[in-house]
Amino acid sequence: MILSKANRLTAEQLAEVTQIVTEFGCKIQPIIGAVRTIYAIVGDERDELMINRLEGLPYIERIDRIQSQFKLMDKRSDLASHRIALGGVTLGEELFVIAGQCTIDPKNPNYFYETAEAVKEAGAHVLRGGVWKPRTNPYAFQGDVKSLDILMEGHRRTGLPVDAEVMDEHHLRLALDAGVHMLQIGARNALNYSLLRAIGRAVAERDTVVLLKRGLHMGSLNEFISAAEYIVSFGNPNIILCPRGTAPTLDGYRNHPDESITPLLKEKTWAPVVVDPSHSVGKAVYVPACALAAVAYGADGLCIEAHVEPARGIGDDPKQALTPGVLADTISQARQMWALRHSIKTA
Ligand code: PEP
Ligand code: MN
After folding, report:
1. pLDDT by residue (tens digit) across 301-330?
2. What ligand has the least distance to the C-alpha of 313?
3. Dihedral sign of CA atoms 297, 134, 149, 324 in order
4. Which residues pair with 101 in a beta bridge?
5. Residue 88 pLDDT
6. Low-confidence ranges of the chain (pLDDT < 70)
7. From the CB of 186, is ligand 1 less than 6 Å away?
8. CA distances from 210 to 90, 172, 314, 344 (A)
C-alpha cells in the first residue's frame, strides 16, 4: 500500500510508480477517499528491491506491506499445523521447561551431573549446559570443548535431551556429531545470517530443535521472525522463539524484560515461544516473577538457568541461577499459571 506525502499522486508520479511496479510484475490500484487517495500494489509485493525503489521516491511518505515477508513462519503458512515435541512434551499442550547451568565447569563436572538430576527432579524436560560461551570480556572463561562430553554424560545419566549454544560452524559440527538435541542461537548471533544459514542447512535432514534467542538489539518483531525464516527455509521447521530481554537495559535488570512480546509474536507466527527470564532480569531473585509473567503472557515454555550451588558456578550462574528448590517451586507455580492462563476467555 503506497501513501504519498501529498493527498494524491500527480499524473507523472503515478506513471513513475506504475512503471516501477510493472517491472516487478505488479499493478497499481488507486483507492480514492474523500480527502486522500492511497495506492494498493496488486501482485506479489514482497520484492525488497521494488519496495526500496518506491521508498526512494521523494514524494512517497511510506509503503505499508500487506503480505508477510516471511512465507514459512507466517501464521497463515501450511507449517502452522506443525507441532514440536521434545523431552516427552508437545509444545503448546503443556508447559515446556528447559533448565540447567549457564556454563558447564569442565574442572567440576559433578556440579553439572548433580544439577542435571536436580532439574529433572524439578520437572524440566530439557537439560541446558553452556559448552562454548559468548563473553563480553575476552579474558573471561570462553567455554571448553571438554564440556561437550560432560553435557552428553548429563543426557545419559538423566535421559533428558540436551541444549547447547553454538557460535560458529565448528561448534555446530561438533554439537551435531555428539548428538545434541537442541541447538541454541544466542542473542549476539541472532542476526548472524551466515550462521543462521549454516544451521538451517545442517539441521535440514534431522529432527534437531533450534532455540533462537531474540537479538540484543532487535526492535521489530519482523526482524526476529525473519531470522527464524532463514533456518526454516532449509526444511526443518523445529524452531522455537526465545525472548530473553533486549538492550538498552532497564535500570536494575540485566536487560529490558520482553516477555510481553509473546502475544504479539503469536499473532504473526505459529512458532512456539519459550521465554528466558534468567538473561532478561539477570538476578536469581527476580527470575521467578519474570517466569510467571511470561506464562501469563502466553509463553509455551521457559528456559531457566539453575545450579545446585550457584555460588560455586561459573559464567552467569553465581548471579542468576536458581537453586533446585526455587526452580521446582517456580515450575510448579508456572504450571498453575499455565492452567489459569488457558482458562481465560480472550473473546
Ligand atoms: C546463555 O544462554 O547462557 C546465553 C549466553 O544466552 P544469551 O545469548 O541470551 O545471552
Ligand atoms: Mn547464561
Report:
1. 999 999 999 999 999 999 999 999 999 999
2. 2
3. negative
4. 129
5. 98
6. none
7. yes
8. 15, 12, 25, 30
* Atom 9 of ligand 1, nearest CA residue: 187
* DSSP H or E run through 178: helix 169-178
CA of 237 to the centre of ligand 2 (A): 25
Q: How far apart are CA 148 and CA 178, in angstroms?
A: 8
Q: How far apart are CA 95 and CA 89, in angstroms?
A: 8
Q: How far is the CA of 339 from the centre of ligand 1 (A)?
A: 28
Selection from 216, 176, 179, 210 nearest residue 196 by Cα: 210
Q: Which residues contact 55 (CB under 8 A, 6 or more apart)?
A: 62, 63
- Residue 279 Cβ contacting ligand 1 at under 6 Å: yes
* DSSP symbols for 12-34: HHHHHHHHHHHHTT-EEEEEE-S
The answer to whether 179 and 151 have CB atoms below 8 angstroms apart is: no
109-122 and 146-158 are packed helices; what angle lies between their axes, rounded to 10 degrees? 40
Q: Is 12 exposed, middle or buried (0-12, 13-18, 19+ CB in 10 A)?
A: exposed
User: From the CB of residue 36, how many other CB atoms can be counted at a distance below 10 Å?
Assistant: 12
Indicate whether residue 120 lines ligand 1 (CB < 6 A): no
pLDDT for res 54? 97
Q: What is the reported pTM? A: 0.92
**DSSP string of 265-316?**
HHHHB-S-BEE-HHHHH-SGGGHHHHHHHHHHTT-SEEEEEB-SSGGG--TT
Look up residue 7 and give its three cell numbers: 493527498
State the distance from the centre of ligand 1 to the C-alpha of 333, rounded, in angstroms: 24
The residues pairing with 213 across neighbouring beta strands, listed in sequence order, are: 242
Residues in the chain: 347
Q: Please give the distance, rounded to the nearest whole angstrom, from the Cα atom of residue 326 to the centre of ligand 1.
A: 21
298 within 8 A of 272, measured Cβ to Cβ: no
Reading the block at residue 134, the C-alpha cell is: 559468548
pLDDT 10s digits, 110-131? 999 999 999 999 999 999 999 9
Nearest to 159 by CA among 181, 192, 136, 183: 181
The pLDDT assigned to 69 comes to: 82
